[in-house]
Each structure stands twice: as structure tokens, then as C-alpha cells.
Amino acid sequence: MQTYRATVRGRFDGLGEEARAALLTAADEHDMFSAAFTEAGTLTYDRALSWFSFRCEVRVSPEEGAEAAEERAGALARRAARCAPARCAPGRPERPDAAAPREAG
């Protein structure tokens, strides 16, 4: 197995008032000091709620290679950005449509 550490940066887009409030409530848990490379990944952002950073560790077989690791890291980051507002709101299930992220290009 090969291990890749990926950092995906992007921008929150189309956050509604409810999603913004939920993210701001949990902002202290998602500051830059919580960033770590883990299999589940960590989402960090500041109180401006414009940009986010997602770090994760992806393991792939040598046959799969770096391209597969990149695809998995991107998918994890998109899911984390979409679901973050729902996770931040107490008692709410994950909602994949809560926020639409755009990857920085």
C-alpha cells in the first residue's frame, strides 16, 4: 500500500443563513490548529466562511497509483464541505445539499 497525504483547498458557495450559523457555531473546532492528516480527514475554515481546507490521508495499492489517491481525496473533501453545516448543527443528520463547495483551481 502507498500512503498519500492530500490537502484540498476550496471555497464555500451558496451557504444559506442556517448553514452559515451552524458553521460559525462550530468554527472553533475547525480552526487551523485542528488540521491533521487522517483517513477520515479534517475540515478547517475561518469565521469568514469563504475558503476551506481539507486534509486527509489516502491509502492505495501501487497498481491504483497517485491518480486514484487524488480522486479519493477530492471526493472526501467535497463530501466534508457539503456535510459540514449539517454535522455542526446539533441533532441534525448529514445533508449532502447543505453547502456546495467549489474546489480552488
What can you see in these coordinates?
The chain is of the alpha+beta class and 105 residues long. The chain has one domain (2-103). The chain is built from two helices and four strands. The chain has helices spanning 17-25, 65-88, and strands at 2-13, 42-45, 51-60, 100-103. A four-stranded antiparallel sheet has the order 2-3-1-4, with helices on one face. The radius of gyration is 14 Å and the shape is elongated. Residues 89-105 have low confidence and may be disordered.
Question: What's the order of the H and E elements?
Answer: EHEEHE
Q: In the residues, how many domains can be counted?
A: 1
Q: Could you tell me the number of beta strands?
A: 4
User: Assembly state here?
Assistant: single chain
The level of helicity is 25-40%
Strand order of the largest sheet: 2-3-1-4
Mean pLDDT: 79
Main sheet overview: 4 strands, antiparallel
Instruction: State the secondary-structure class.
Output: alpha+beta
Note poorly predicted spans: 89-105
